[in-house]
Amino acid sequence: MAANIVAKVRRTSLASTYGVGALLPTADDSVMIRGLQDWHLGDVIQEPRLARSLGVTEFRSPPTWRDNGDVPAIRFPEYVFCTKCRRLGRWYEVIDQVTDKCRTCHEIVSPSRFVCCCTNGHIEDFPYSSWVHQYPRYQGEGHTLSLISQGHTSALSDLVVSCSCGKKRSMDGAFHFNALRGLHGCRGSRPWLSDDDEKCDQTLRTLQRGSSNVWFGVTSSAISIPSVPNIADTFIAAKAHDLNLDRPAADLARTFRAPAG
After folding, report:
1. Which residues contact residue 217 at a Cβ distance below 8 angstroms, ignoring those fewer than 6 apart?
2. What is the pLDDT of residues 190-242, one digit of tens each?
3. Cβ atoms of residues 14 and 7 within 8 Å
4. Cα–Cα distance, 84 to 249 (Å, whole number)
5. C-beta neighbour count of 92 within 10 angstroms
6. Which residue has the higher pLDDT, 79 or 195?
7. Greatest pairwise CA separation for the chain in angstroms
8. What is the per-residue pLDDT across 228-255, written as a single tens digit (0 to 9) for each?
9. At what angle do helices 249-256 and 231-243 cross, to 10 degrees?
10. Cα(246)–Cα(250) distance, rounded to whole angstroms?
11. Where are the domains of the chain?
């Protein structure tokens, strides 16, 4: 099945701004770059000094479209809301799979503005159901949520989560340090990986999806200086080739080198 191309990204950006686990904004959506275990392998980059410094065996360049090397991504956050009817829910509850629009009013949907992160690097959707009902780990089965903008100001107090059961609560206070303590604990979620969640006891913090502190890469760099061939290596390699010697040229070169000192 053909891949669904959601965006085009430069290879340099995949090694910096939009690396593994980063959120990539698209025209009408937001996706997360999946882990390297799902990538097609690019060309090997030889940089032995940097490899030794970082304790790795090799480096690979990001794949290109010529290699059929599309970089996999998943839809994240899962929560979306309709720009017309304001329905709020997970994308598979709100979106029509054929039209990719709201299944209720057939308008474009937008990804949730808010996510939750902890200091251990885990990330998950903002717990809207728990927030509006003020009940820990509330799933809201059979309830329908809406995200209402009262339009007075751009303050969080004018952005209200409303439930079909009649409960309402503004987003005011959601960014306080302990806003989610006792309400929604970290599940150790790592959406970019295919494995199970980790155990975690850290407090989740609410963040804007596009904030720079949601994801930032740790980069290392090195100056690449190509090794200059030794004169003896070059001479012996040429002679070994002429004589069809089986012994490696580098070994022969060491034989002819003068001892140190």
Report:
1. 16, 17, 19, 22
2. 999 977 788 999 999 999 999 989 998 888 888 877 666 666 667 766 766 66
3. no
4. 73
5. 10
6. 79
7. 91
8. 666 666 776 676 666 655 655 555 555 5
9. 120
10. 12
11. 11-208, 228-261
